[in-house]
Amino acid sequence: ILLNRTKAPLSEIKKAFANALRLDPCNTAAMMNLAEPLVLQKKYDEASALTAKAMRLRPEKPLVLAKAQALVKEFMEGRDFQAAQNLLEEWTQSRPQDVDAWHNLGLILLNQGQNARAISCFRQVHQRTPEDNFAVTQLAKLYFQEKNARECLRYCNILLHRGHKQLLAVSLKGRIINFTSGHEQAMQYLMPYIDQNPSNDALLVVLAEIHEYHDKYRDAVSALQKAKQILELGNKQNNTENLRFVINKIRNLKAKKIH
User: Fold this and answer.
1) How far apart (Å, rounded) are the C-alpha atoms in residues 253 and 235?
2) How far apart are the C-alpha atoms of 238 and 118, rounded to whole Å?
3) Rounded to an integer, what distance in angstroms lies between the CA atom of residue 162 and that of residue 167?
4) DSSP assignment string, 85-111
5) pLDDT, tens digit, for every residue of 87-103?
6) Of 24, 36, 85, 239, which has the most beta carbons under 10 Å away?
7) What is the DSSP letter of 78?
C-alpha cells in the first residue's frame, strides 16, 4: 500500500502484493489494492482478472462489489469491452441476483452480435425485474432477429399491454403475422395502426415489406412513396438515413416490376 501511495514503479507494487497473496491467497483486500495501480497503467485485462477472482472468493464483500462497479464503468468508458465482459461474466456467476450486471453484460453481447447469449442475459433481467421495459424491448427485437416467432410475439404482447414502444411492437408483430399467417392476416392487423398513425413512416415501410414478401411490388412502391413524402416534410437532417433507404428501396422495387 505504501509503495502504491508513493507512486513506486508498478513492477515493485506488483511484487509486494504478490508476496502478500503468496502468504494469503484469499486476501481480497490485497487484490483490490493491486487493481488500482493496474487501472492507472491501463492494464485492464489484469485488473479485470484480479477483480473477478476476488468476486469469486468473496462475492458478499462490499469492497469487492464497489471496486467491480467502478471498474466496469472504467472499462466501458475506456472502450475495453473484453475486460468488462470478463469481469461481468464472473460477476453474474458469483452474484446472479445483481440485475445491473446481467443488463451490462447483455449490452456488451448485443453489441458483439452474440444474440443467443444476449437473450440469456435479458431473460435474467426480465425474470428478476419483470417491470424492466428495456429488457422486454430487447427480447422482442432479438427473438425477431433469431426468427423465433412465438417468443417474439410473447414479448411484443407484453409491450403492447404496457403501452411501451407500441409502434415497434406493432411493426415486429405485423411481420411475424405475415410470415406465419399470410398477407391478408397481416394487413388486417397492421392497417388499423396505420390509419391511427398516418404520419408514421416506419409503419408504411413495414407495410411495403409485407407487400414485397408476397410479390405485390406496385402496392409496396405506393406505401414507400407515402413514407418518402412524410420523411421529406419532416426534419430532413434527422431523416436523411431513413429517406435514403426509402428512395433506394423504391428504385429497387421499380426495377423488379420491370423485370
Assistant:
1) 25
2) 29
3) 12
4) HHHHHHHHHH-TT-HHHHHHHHHHHHH
5) 999 999 999 999 999 99
6) 85
7) T
Going by the DSSP 8-state scheme, the letter that residue 27 receives in this structure is -
Instruction: Mark out the alpha helices in the chain (DSSP H runs).
Output: 2-5, 10-23, 28-40, 44-57, 62-77, 81-94, 99-111, 115-128, 133-145, 149-162, 166-181, 183-196, 201-213, 217-233, 236-258
Rounded to 5°, angle at Cα 86 from 82 and 88: 110
Q: CA-to-CA distance for 54 and 56, rounded, in angstroms?
A: 5
pLDDT, one tens digit per residue, over 140-177 is 999 999 999 999 999 999 999 999 999 999 999 999 99
> Nine-digit cell at 237?
437532417
The torsion angle over the Cα atoms of residues 72, 77, 81 and 86, rounded to 10 degrees, is -20
State the residue for C-alpha cell 431523416: 239
CA dist 119 → 61, 116, 125 (Å): 29, 5, 10
